[in-house]
Amino acid sequence: MPSSANSVVVLDFETTGLSPNMGDRAIEIGAVKLINGEVVDTFQQLMNPGFRVSSFIERYTGISNNMLHTAPSCAEVMSEFASFVGDSNMVAHNASFDKRFLDAELSPLGIEYRGQFACSMLIARRLYQDAPTHKLGDLVRYKNIEHDGVFHRALADSEMTAKLWMVMLQELQSRGVIEPEFTFMQKVAKTSKGAINTLLSKQAQQARA
């Protein structure tokens, strides 16, 4: 059964570094569940990676070692998160990063997820080619999306990404692409910038047919 792009889980990790292959772990996850474009649930939890994080990461995320000391383990949090996601498709800003950490944290638990990923950053690069950069904070300002000024905390970033996602769906609607499926958004992310207008025109024509 095709699934709509407006019913997804938007997630964001804060981590001890850039690569789980280098031993980095997740230290916070935040997620927003959208059903038909409405926020129906959120998930936010710190998690103890089992070692002290660097002072750079403490400053960058605002997450201190003291905060992590009393947090539940990654395994405990990720088991809960897997239940929260269920079969939903997922969206993240720079999704390859978040998918790497999700896979690395769920794999030792023997948990597999059935949903697929779409990257809001790649889609924004196609739709907003004039944006100064495609970092989340810059796109939020570029599109005048309401925010509370908090970045690099998982729930705040996933809420911003969810708002950006809905703005992009509205943008597509204004171009005749009504209620696209999730697989279409994945196609947008993979289409070259030069070919994007052709793709959207074709999709709009099919919708009218």
Question: What key attributes describe this structure?
Answer:
alpha/beta; 45% helix; globular; 209 residues; single chain; Nucleotidyltransferase, domain 5
Give an account of the 3D structure:
With 209 residues, this protein is α/β, with parallel strands linked by helices. It has one domain: Ribonuclease H-like superfamily/Ribonuclease H (Nucleotidyltransferase, domain 5), CATH 3.30.420. The protein has helices at residues 55-61, 65-69, 74-85, 95-106, 120-127, 136-142, 154-174, 182-190, 196-208; strands at residues 8-15, 26-35, 38-46, 90-92, 117-119. Strands 3-2-1-4-5 form a five-stranded mixed beta sheet, with helices on both faces. A hairpin with a 2-residue loop joins β2 and β3 (38-46). The longest helix is centred in the last third of the chain and has 21 residues, at 154-174. It starts with 7 loop residues before the first strand and ends with a helix.
Strand segment count: 5
- Weakly predicted, low-confidence segments: none
CATH H-level homologous superfamily name: Ribonuclease H-like superfamily/Ribonuclease H
Main structural class: alpha/beta
**Highest CATH level, the class:** Alpha Beta
Distance between the termini: 21 Å
* Average pLDDT for all residues: 95
Number of domains: 1
Topology as H/E string?
Answer: EEEHHHEHEHHHHH
